[in-house]
Amino acid sequence: xxxxxxxxxxxxxKKSIGKEIIEVxxxxxxxxxxxxxxxxxxxxxxYVLIIRLEGDLCICVPLTxxxxxxxxxxxxxxxxxxxxxxxxxxxxxxxxxxLVEKYSVPVxxxxxxxxxxxxxxxxxxxxxxxxxREKFIKKVAERFKDFNLSxxxxxxxxxxx
Length: 161
What we know:
There is one protein chain. The protein is 38% helix and 25% strand. It is of the alpha+beta class and 161 residues long. The N and C termini lie far apart (60 Å).
């Protein structure tokens, strides 16, 4: 039985997902900055690019090394660092800066292509890109759901003070 490579990649990714997220030692925490690519200590690890800081909120774009699963209606601008290649995913993640500090570390700083990535996220569409790609993008988005929700609730609560 011949399996689709995208199906295999998706199933391997899904199988590797763990529940734990590891906190960064308090003494080693580094505040987020625009342009940072940060590594979240999850299984498997997840990367985000901080596009913008708005008060205590980091506007981020997830990056993935699963390039084949990340292709949408337009080809994503790739981010290269050392021997790794990442693709931005077509959605925003809003994370409170304290949570970014607590659960991630900066890996490198992107000084170019931030505008290209921002434009890509604004224009990219996931409808009709294929079952496995749609499932993958949705699964990664689910992994950031709790960060998004708790950060947005925090922003609302702070705004009411």
